[in-house]
């Protein structure tokens, strides 16, 4: 079991491999050839027809015919193959110069946004998945009506576009993520810590307010899509992402595809039960994993350990920073809080490994700065609780993405839905992304 090093910067497209999107075409479900070829080009960044045919096992004639249509429709473009510096032999023959295919990045623009407890973030991207601009907006940490949340999201969108001299007419699709039980296919939100009441067809309400096709998903799925499209999960078949922030979330990738469950509201790891009649969770139930590991759970105990009432603090994050500093300084009460949370996290991770047998479990989110949550003792306890037989245990990696990664995952959500609409089966809305 290995925990990777902890970075301190946002992992954006800079320095990352060219292209975006899942790389394992061989395990993707059946899709129209147009979409398969387009997705391959976008994932590679650029490629030749010959390379594409070999990689996908498609005949040269089919590749040529389909890519010609994609170029004519404005989805792909050709560019000369860059000369390799170590090859000084001139090209022999009179044939057509070799060309590479690339996504016509300017053909469409999408926006991804993450609506959060303390701050909303948004990213503007082109059709190739390249980040063009980003913005953020503070929000009050209290439950809101759907109308207020939508108004804030619309203001965030306008702020992002106005900075680039663009309007909503320039946007082809929007992806939105938020915490809670978000039913992806319908856009219903059965419960969210951000809303003061359940909301039916919330996606449609966003779509009406934006005037742009919009998709809504759980925020943990956004982070998982960010890994699948832009991060370390692009070439992995099966992996899990566990997020620890104000809540505890989970996303799951099976066969290089995001898995949401039958109704799109699965993978609620934070609300799995780890203690009968245990601590009260913000969902109203008792004994949830989140009630022992999430921000508000740690802040609740930090207020006691630091001898101050949580309500007197500027923010739970202030309490957590103070708690972490005390733990670093050897305060036994502060240390005991992190140790207890770490043990419950080990239990949750063991359950994930036992049920899904992922290739890797990625721990992510803002609380990865608190290394007590993934200390060697925590990971060792997880391993001890997991029945593995003679197999090596699931690998654990720590990814300290910056806050914009959630919105970047919403970009992937929007790009996947838009590509499905333009090139795939437009009626199968539930299979997008």
Described by the principal axes of the CA atoms, the overall outline is: globular
Biggest sheet overview: 5 strands, mixed
Ends apart, CA distance between termini: 30 Å
Q: What is the overall pLDDT average?
A: 87
* Category by helix and strand content: alpha/beta
Instruction: Provide the low-confidence segments as ranges.
Output: 1-17, 426-433
H/E element string?
HHHEEEEEHEEEHEHEEEHHHHEHEH
Number of helices: 12
Q: Spatial order of the strands in the main sheet? A: 5-4-3-6-9
Radius of gyration over alpha carbons?
A: 23 Å
Could you tell me the number of beta strands? 14
Report the portion of residues in β strands.
Answer: 15-25%
In helices, the fraction of residues equals 25-40%
Layout of helices and strands:
Layout: H1 33-44, H2 49-56, H3 60-72, E1 76-80, E2 99-103, E3 109-114, E4 119-126, E5 131-138, H4 146-163, E6 173-178, E7 181-183, E8 188-191, H5 202-210, E9 214-218, H6 219-230, E10 239-244, E11 248-254, E12 257-259, H7 290-293, H8 295-305, H9 316-328, H10 332-356, E13 360-364, H11 376-385, E14 395-399, H12 405-423
Parallel strand pairs: 3-6, 6-9, 10-13, 13-14
Antiparallel strand pairs: 1-2, 3-4, 4-5, 7-8, 10-11, 11-12
Helix pairs in contact: 1-3, 2-3, 4-5, 6-12, 8-9, 8-10, 9-10, 10-11
